[in-house]
Amino acid sequence: MPVTVGVTEALGSEIHVVFEIDAPPVVNKDTAALAADQSEEETAIPAAAGKSTWIARVSPRTRVRPGDDFELGVDTGNLHFFDPESGLTIGRTPSASSN
Predict the structure, then answer these.
(1) Does residue 70 sit within a domain?
(2) Which of 46, 55, 57, 70 ranks highest by number of CB atoms within 10 Å?
(3) Tally of domains within the chain
(4) Residue 61, domain extent
(5) What pLDDT was estimated at residue 74?
(6) Which residues, given as ranges, of the chain have pLDDT below 50?
(7) Is residue 37 part of a domain?
(8) Residue 88 lies inside a defined structural domain of this protein
(9) Which CB contacts under 8 angstroms, 24+ apart, belong to 8-12?
């Protein structure tokens, strides 16, 4: 997935790469309620219209810098999906080793 790096945060064991993608932000009733409770000074700067902010964890050896064009791979085996109403996990079944 080609992205333009917005911010990087070196954490020792990994680097967080913050970037925006062309997709509307996901709104959850819990996060919307938290945002409604914030004063104007406490709210974060919103992403551009039609975009959402993502964070990737990359190796600390990666030489990525803010403003770089970067190619990210997505390990789909580590994606997690949640029901927007209940907040419960969607699509995961217990592994054989956990039985």
Answers:
(1) yes
(2) 70
(3) 1
(4) 2-74
(5) 82
(6) 42-43
(7) yes
(8) no
(9) 8/64, 8/65, 8/66, 10/60, 11/60, 12/60
